[in-house]
Design a protein that fits this description.
Elements: H1 3-19, E1 35-50, E2 60-72, E3 75-84, E4 96-99, E5 102-103, E6 106-118, E7 122-134, E8 139-149, E9 167-178, E10 183-194, H2 197-201, E11 211-225, E12 228-241, H3 253-259, E13 271-284, E14 287-296, E15 312-323, E16 328-338, E17 347-361, E18 366-381, E19 392-410, E20 415-433, E21 439-454, E22 459-472, E23 475-490, E24 495-508, E25 514-527, E26 531-544, E27 552-565
Antiparallel strand pairs: 1-2, 1-27, 2-3, 3-4, 3-5, 4-6, 5-6, 6-7, 7-8, 8-9, 9-10, 10-11, 11-12, 12-13, 13-14, 14-15, 15-16, 16-17, 17-18, 18-19, 19-20, 20-21, 21-22, 22-23, 23-24, 24-25, 25-26, 26-27
């Protein structure tokens, strides 16, 4: 157990002890347990062996994870952690632990946590630090400060390519007022990379450059009418890439002298960008209409999201309606997307995206779904206007999926039977003109599955048949196979035995193909009310011929333990 983990756990326990003195509600004493612990823990240890030249796993692996919730009347303290030997393989933290104590409308975050401020500022980014959320009535406030990324030096001693990184710290805040239907929120996000100038000069960070980012955002929603709502998320960003210049020159010198603050430094490196995501929706009697407009400038950047697409403009419209008491539901949408908003790229892309879905749910036995989508992209060289060679490309992708499922249930006998059929088609056309030939790719897929469950006997089994056909440039490949699985419970389902086996064949026109076998077997045992132990074996083998080489296999044996904590119901007392 690491020192940081012990510190976080000690702070959490102290918070529980101190909070007990002021969180008690005297009127609820005797009606509810004053202190409770719910959640669960899980752990595993595994042994792995293979004859692959590049093993997919380490020979021995282990891990422990848990989600616990301490409750003292109205005080809630969720606590989660992950500890694993994978920490030594990951350059960024794999072991994570954190606690989020909550009392009525106040929540604190300590350790490895994630918070949402707005989609265009910070959302989903994991940090190691502290945070606070307050939501009394219609008022909302949130803030955080912590480390977003660890420092990683480039490894020049091996041929392994690993991305270097600077230590990145982040600060975010949000303040707002209103309800879910009508509100206004102001959001702020700041991130900067710490680095040593001598290490950067020596190339210890490889080709990576430090970044500094500031984003200001406004998120608003207005309930125009009972069924009409408008939403908008607007943000502006400042980004610096590279070392801080020793002397500012040029037109921004005066601006830098006037606007440099501890939050951001404006200089000739500074890139400015803006973004907007907006939508208007109308909902009445089960029918919805919506139109959306998004525009993300090429220079807009936020380091508060793991991935963010820029230089894109979207127009979207959709409609959905239901009939026969919403048993039949139909939706359709159409979107237009384009890039190169600054007209500076060598190639520009225009996309058209359309989709339609038809669903039927009888509510008892039959569920049917039919969906279609079309994606068309047109790309044109920007050099055409200059009189150079014209390069044009058109790509069209069609997808059709049909799913039909039947469910029969006998409540008296405790039996459930399910059967499903899925068919899919995907066509892709790549037209490069005037000189390139048209290329067409077609893929057909299909599967049939059956599942039976007999609850009184604690027995269930299932089977599935799958097939896929791939055709491209006059060449074809087919894959088909089957899988079987079953589970039987003993001793009032406290002991369970499960098996699964799958067999797949691959055949092609240019090679003899391959055969794959996947097999799993396991046993699990419940002990007492909260403990469960498990043992499982997994085998994955492939038998190949001709130019594919020799057969290969992978085998993994795993032991698991799980602890489930539940709140015991207090017995009612009669006076």
């Amino acid at each position: 157990m690491s020192l940081r983990f012990r510190i976080v756990l000690f702070i959490s326990c102290q918070a529980l002890v101190s909070a007990r003195s002021f969180c008690q509600d005297l009127e609820r004493i005797g009606k509810k347990d004053p202190v409770s612990l719910t959640g669960g823990l899980s752990s595993y240890a595994a042994i792995y062996t293979t004859d692959l030249d590049d093993p997919r796993m380490a020979p021995i692996t282990w891990g422990i994870s848990g989600r616990l919730n301490f409750s003292i009347y109205d005080l809630q303290v969720p606590f989660s952690f992950i500890i694993s030997e994978k920490e030594r393989d990951f350059r960024q933290p794999f072991n994570q632990y954190g606690v989020s104590p909550r009392y009525k409308w106040a929540t604190a975050h300590i350790g490895h946590r994630s918070m949402h401020f707005s989609e265009l500022t910070m959302s989903g980014q994991r940090f190691f630090g502290v945070g606070l959320e307050l939501s009394p009535g219609k008022f909302r406030f949130a803030a955080m400060y912590g480390r977003l990324r660890k420092e990683i030096f480039a490894d020049t001693t091996t041929d392994v390519i690993e991305e270097a990184a600077f230590k990145r710290n982040g600060l975010a805040a949000r303040i707002g007022v209103g309800t879910q239907a009508s509100h206004v929120d102001l959001a702020f996000f700041r991130a900067n990379d710490d680095y040593d100038a001598s290490d950067l000069a020596k190339g210890r960070y490889g080709s990576a450059l430090p970044e500094e980012n500031l984003v200001l955002g406004l998120n608003a929603a207005v309930q125009i009418a009972k069924s009409l709502q408008f939403q908008a998320d607007i943000a502006g960003s400042l980004l610096n890439v590279g070392e801080v210049p020793e002397e500012r020159t040029g037109d921004l010198a005066d601006l830098a002298n006037n606007y440099d603050t501890p939050l951001f430094n404006v200089d000739p490196r500074t890139r400015r960008g803006s973004a907007i995501k907006s939508g208007l929706s109308y909902n009445v009697k089960g029918t919805t209409f919506s139109v959306n407009y998004d525009r993300i400038d090429p220079l807009f950047r936020t380091l508060g999201n793991y991935y963010f697409m820029s230089d894109v403009e979207n127009y979207r419209a959709s409609m959905g309606t239901g009939v026969f008491k919403q048993k039949v539901r139909f939706t359709v949408s159409l979107g237009l997307q384009s890039n190169d908003l600054a007209r500076s790229l060598a190639a520009r892309t225009r996309r058209t995206i359309g989709s339609a879905n038809l669903n039927y749910n009888s509510g008892k036995v039959l569920t049917t779904s039919l969906s279609w989508s079309n994606f068309e992209a047109n790309m044109r060289s920007a050099y055409e206007a200059a009189g150079t060679d014209t390069i044009e490309l058109r790509q069209v992708s069609d997808n059709i999926t049909f799913t039909n499922s039947l469910r029969f249930r006998d409540a008296d006998k405790g039996t459930t039977r399910n059967m499903d059929i899925t068919l899919g088609y995907q066509g892709f056309v790549n037209e490069g003109y005037p000189s390139q030939p048209t290329q067409t790719t077609v893929t057909w897929t299909g599967s049939v599955g059956y599942r039976s469950q007999v609850k009184p006997r604690a027995f269930g089994w299932g089977a599935r048949l799958t097939t896929s056909v791939f055709e491209s440039a006059g060449l074809g490949r087919i894959k088909y196979g089957t899988s079987l699985n079953a589970r039987k419970g003993f001793n009032k389902d406290r002991t369970g035995v499960n098996v699964r086996a799958a067999f797949y064949l691959n055949r092609g026109e240019q090679y003899g193909g391959s055969t794959s076998v996947v097999a799993n077997a396991g046993i699990d045992q419940k002990v007492g009310r909260a403990h469960r132990f498990g043992l499982g074996v997994n085998y994955n083998g492939r038998s190949t011929n001709e130019r594919f080489g020799d057969s290969q296999y992978q085998m993994r044996m795993q032991v698991t333990y799980a602890l489930e904590l539940r709140t015991r119901e207090r017995k009612k007392t009669t006076s």
